[in-house]
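From the shared-data thread, chain only:
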Amino acid sequence: MRPTSRCILLLSLGVPIALLPLLLGGRLWGAWAAYAAAVIFLIGLDLILVGFRRRPLVEPELPPMLYIGSEGELRIGVRIAGWPPPAAADLTCDLEDPLRPVSQVCVSLEDGGGEGVFRLTAARRGTGRVTAVWVRWSGPLGLMQRQCRLPREDELPVVPDVRSVRRTALRFFGSRDPLAGEKLERYSGDGSEFEQLREFVRGLDRRAIDWKVSARHRKLVCREFRAERNHQVVIACDTGHLMSEPVDGVPKLDHAINAGLLLTWFSLRAGDRVGLFGFDKGINFYVAPQGGMGTFRRLQVATAGLEYSTEETNFTLGLAELSQRLRRRSLVVLMTDFVDTVTAELMIENLERLSRHHLVLFVTLRNPEIAGLTTAKPTSLNGVARGVVAAEMLRERRTVILRLRRLGIQAIDADPDGVSPELLNRYLDIKRREQIA
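Structure, as tokens:
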């Protein structure tokens, strides 16, 4: 409970009234006493009417998810019981990072109930929380206010904006490659899973002729194949401190998640099962591979749990745990980063071990600023030193990528703008070659 500005004004008017007896005569003391008693009575009456024991009820309604850089609406319904019901109330709420703070709103109350609307925005991915709702209302005389803090534990996942993912997906789905394994009509020569027998005609592959069946039917019969479906694809995201480095103002982890969501969309449309795995010094979480387009939204919400970390990545623990959880051969897309050949040595050893049972696709993001230092004209001795160090870093990255490819591990080292199409093209090539089976 606290006084309003109107109450303070009334109390301040009592000061000049109290000075009148000193200036004009002692008979005016009675007027000052009457004024003081009236003000105290009005304050006490408003204190009772504002509802000393009245506690409001709030019902926050959060959106199912919030896209980075986009706005969402948080609706909070408020109801204040008692008589007389207040005409209006001020609402605000406490939000945790990554949600940005919101300003106070005034809600008109009809029969003691109303609804306030807040605009929510977030600058980065994560899980936002509404920890408390503040409600403040005045008495009918406007002299006293009551303010209540109502604790809450509401969560809102902040996820990457996948509208660009859908636009990119629609452009690619005009070709037949992404639909391999999805349509009932198969293309000749695609896949390795038996579809049906048909009479051989000129132009078909002679290697597909089934000689035993041809001898039984006394005419040439060949086999038709289709692309296999129901493969397992696991997006493994390294959340260590190297992936928190910003590139073009966005952390590498967010670039990797955007590329992984695009691959997830295509894989689910092609009939594959997709899972998500996050690790740094330990295992953050694991979503087992699932099929169906409904999985895309579940994985999109799950990406909010990939927190930015300052820890060193433990590839031995992470990749060993992932290999233990996968019961069948899968395509493991590892999104990670490294600095030099020395720190990447342990990573290479564990990737080689993982590639014995699974098909591994190694994805790392280049920093365009480092490449720019090697081509920029130096203007000082420090500029020359930066150029030499940048060139050495790029040379060691090429060395690591070459070692991985010699071990049979497919590797992608691309800029953030080009990693999504390159990852998608590599996935389509893997599907065509049936390398997962």
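Residues 126 and 305 are 6 Å apart (CA to CA).
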